[in-house]
Amino acid sequence: MEDKALVEFQKEGREASYSVGNIYFGRIKKLMPGLNACFVDVGSGKDAFLHYLDLGPQFRSFQKYLKQVQSDRKKLYPIAKATTMPDLEKDGSISNTLQQGQEVMVQVVKEPISTKGPRLTCELSFAGRYLVLVPFNEKVSVSTKIKSSGERARLKQLLQSIKPKHFGVIVRTVAEGKGAAELNAELETLLRHWESAITKVQKCTKTPLLIHEETSRTVGLLRDLFNPSYESIYVNDETVYHEVRDYVSLIAPDRVEIVKLYKGELPIFDNFAITKQIKASFGKTISYKRGAYLIIEHTEAMHVVDVNSGNRTKAENGQEANALEVNLGAADELARQLRLRDMGGIIVVDFIDMNQAENRQKLYERMCENMKKDRAKHNILPLSKFGLMQITRQRVRPAMDVTTAETCPVCFGKGSIQPSILFTDTLESKIDYLVNKVGIKKFKLHLHPYVAAFVNQGLVSMKRKWQMKYGFGIKVIPNQKLAMLQYEFYDTHGEEIDMKEEFEIKS
């Protein structure tokens, strides 16, 4: 969040696979000479895609080293003794380089998107906070965002002196000003990751095999995003809290106190007004300023955005000024939406037509300025003669899609429900069953905020009557995630208690 506005949102289930950065020891399943590429089996229903240009110049050296590693299962062949082979030709053919059934070490660079499987590369990298370790690459590169020539030279010289043979290093922006001890410690950690991965290859008897897994998404985000401007990091899971706190204590010991464990009764997203923003910011129609709104459509080939002035009051100084004002507001909101939804690929925006060239330039400059905060690589073209702006944005995972429309939790499309006035009677019967039949005396009942307000109203509220009748272990929690007549019971450990009857379950 920036200035209490949600600008980035990532959601991932615990069962999710194919994190970008994971390294597999896979097998070539099918060669595609027409595409100059191949499909690799990495252990999923969708075969992964590997293009010839993603093999990397040092591919032959790497493959020879892998054969040497696998030739002796007891003693690991040191990479320092690896034989260097000629670089791979840029205009070569996949058919002359790989064979069906061949084993390769690959890394995920793009998650599966739509019908496409994950995108792979053979140019492996192990990312840390300050450094990125690249096997079979002798170069030391320094981030272009480090502007000081003296600092760039210092970092390059330092890493040249401590890096092992047959390893390259990319120095990240946050390494600016760091000493030899910190950089060497991280380099040692990354080398251990490499040794662990190559040891798994040495002992591998069956492919495909996951040989290196990226850090948890939470730690990975902190590694890439953490900066001194952070004021607070709230976590509502104790295990993840300790994980985050430990990581922050490593990278910024003086800022560890900003990591806080959230223990509030309200759901964490409700407490920080995130739930409402999610429901308002996702979906097809996005209102942003005095009646103006965006229409966002996601297609197979691109994302399409239409800007509409809606029913806003026209500017006194004419249509041109009105169009400019609406378009500038749209540029602000669109830049936020691109980050929020993580929209990638081609984005085409249909702004309201403007006749004056200076206004079109203002809009272009405003869009470029807004996109400076975006970490993803992007390119913005000026407005075309049709009033369209074309944007390309790096895409490594599917666009975030949150369904904001609520399915009726009562009828599930059947069109008829029990009388809503009897809803509280139904709740009381559930509470009675839970307390007197199941024997659970302490629990939380989550309700829609409007219903929760009704249950809590009055000096002797309905909640108080329930507590006096069934015990004071009953707590009523408003939850913005729930629909009007939806309810959820949770025990003291935060686990949901399923109290739904057969007629309440979607058929």
Question: What can you tell me about this protein's structure?
Answer:
The protein has 507 residues and is an alpha+beta fold. The protein has 4 domains: 23-128 and 179-212, Nucleic acid-binding proteins (OB fold (Dihydrolipoamide Acetyltransferase, E2P), Beta Barrel), CATH 2.40.50.140; 217-263, no CATH class; 275-393, 3-Layer(aba) Sandwich (Aminopeptidase), CATH 3.40.630; 420-504, hypothetical protein PF0899 fold (2-Layer Sandwich), CATH 3.30.2320. The chain is built from 13 helices and 22 strands. The protein has helices at residues 59-71, 94-97, 149-162, 180-203, 217-225, 238-251, 268-271, 274-281, 319-341, 357-370, 423-438, 449-456, 462-470, and strands at 23-32, 37-41, 48-51, 103-110, 119-121, 126-127, 131-135, 140-142, 167-171, 209-212, 233-235, 259-261, 285-289, 292-298, 303-308, 345-350, 378-380, 388-393, 443-447, 474-478, 487-490, 496-497. The strands form 5 sheets. Strands 1, 2, 3, 4, 5 and 10 form a 6-stranded antiparallel β-sheet that branches. A 6-stranded mixed β-sheet has the order 13-14-15-16-18-17. Strands 6-7-9-8 form a 4-stranded mixed β-sheet, covered by helices on one side. Helix 1 crosses helix 4 (180-203). The longest helix is centred in the middle third of the chain and has 24 residues, at 180-203. The mean pLDDT is 83.
- Average pLDDT works out at 83
Helix tally? 13
N- to C-terminal distance: 39 Å
Structural class: alpha+beta
Summarize the structure.
By secondary structure, this protein is of the alpha+beta class. It folds into four domains: 23-128 and 179-212, Beta Barrel (OB fold (Dihydrolipoamide Acetyltransferase, E2P)); 217-263, no CATH class; 275-393, Aminopeptidase; 420-504, hypothetical protein PF0899 fold (2-Layer Sandwich), CATH 3.30.2320. The chain has 13 helices and 22 strands.
